Amino acid sequence: MRILKTVAMAAALLCALVNSAAAADDDYPSRPITLTHGFGAGGNADAIARIVADGLSRRLGKPVIVEARPGAGGNIASDRAAKAAPDGYTLIMLTGGHAVSAAMYKALPFDPVEDFQMISTVVFFPFVVAVKSSHRFQTLADLIAEAKAKPDTLTYSSVGVGSTQHLVGELLSAMAGIRMIHVPYKGGGGPINDLLGGQIDILIDTLTITAPQLTAGTIRGLGATSQAPWFSIPDVPPIAATVSGYEVRSWLGIATSKKVPQPVIDKLNRELRAVLEMRDTKSKLQVMGNEVRSGSPDDMRSMIVSEISRWKRVIDTAGIPRQ
């Protein structure tokens, strides 16, 4: 009799948990969601976040509001998201710079893996190293030759110390045996505006920023960071054609704070993956030169862990000082 009573209680508890999980899924979201990112308005993270937020708003039936909190290579926004209430109403668009920062900084105010609940990757893409179209450099080899002859004179942009763009420049410098001056920005249109205005020599940025300017002929692409020519910019040679073995591909993905209820995470993953398969959303992201690729929360977590390990090896091999 006692055994039957125990079994009945266990069954009742299991039923309650199932019903509670179903209720959490059904009730979420009951109010607007914030999708934050750590870079300037008009930049790559901002543009992609707005496309994805529009699709999520339609799928979830509640507004998804994009909020830019630029600074510290994205770490200000990451710190805020990591410390947000565990209710799924504060999401963050993480970038490849999240893993770079974890490798680059000796200490961060958050754990880049354990303080986040990953939801899904969104896109993968390379970077472009470019100059103003009227610049004297016609090829990457021209840039390297001058940087060797005149070390510490050429300037290149990034979207912050410890950002992926920063590491793209540092890795190029290390592998090509040159020295350049790093000029960090907070993202957005600052780097491209200063390149066109002549305040910096070299732009290192995403396809969101560079592709329209390449098409318009205002900048010249000296190299793409993909191992092979990228599908959306076939005329820009890979850096690896000049600097053997060079390759950097970055990514964006959505996460939230830890301890968000699993049913909410499952729903967000399901709806985000559906958004990325929507014809208009996928087309907009691909036109910007992105490879659209979603996955499970575990897939994203494993990828970030692997990326942190890879960037640590790159930093150590290249002799790049940690911040």
Look at the structure and give the mean pLDDT: 91
Poorly predicted segments: 15-23
Round the Cα radius of gyration to an integer and report it.
22 Å
The best one-word shape is globular
Beta strands, count: 10
Instruction: State the end-to-end distance.
Output: 66 Å
Instruction: Tell me the fraction of residues in β-strands, as a range.
Output: 15-25%
**Which percent range fits the helix content?**
40-55%
Q: So how many helices?
A: 11
Taken in chain order, the helices and strands follow as HEHEHEHEHEHEHEHEEHHEH
Major sheet details: 8 strands, mixed
What structural class do you assign from the helix and strand content?
alpha/beta
Q: Your description of this structure?
A:
This protein has 323 residues and is of the alpha/beta class. Helices cover 46% and strands 19% of the residues. Strands 1, 2, 3, 4, 7, 8, 9 and 10 form an eight-stranded mixed sheet that branches. The protein has a two-stranded parallel ribbon with strand order 5-6. Helix 6 (164-176) links the parallel strand 5 and strand 6 (181-184). The protein contains eleven helices and ten strands.
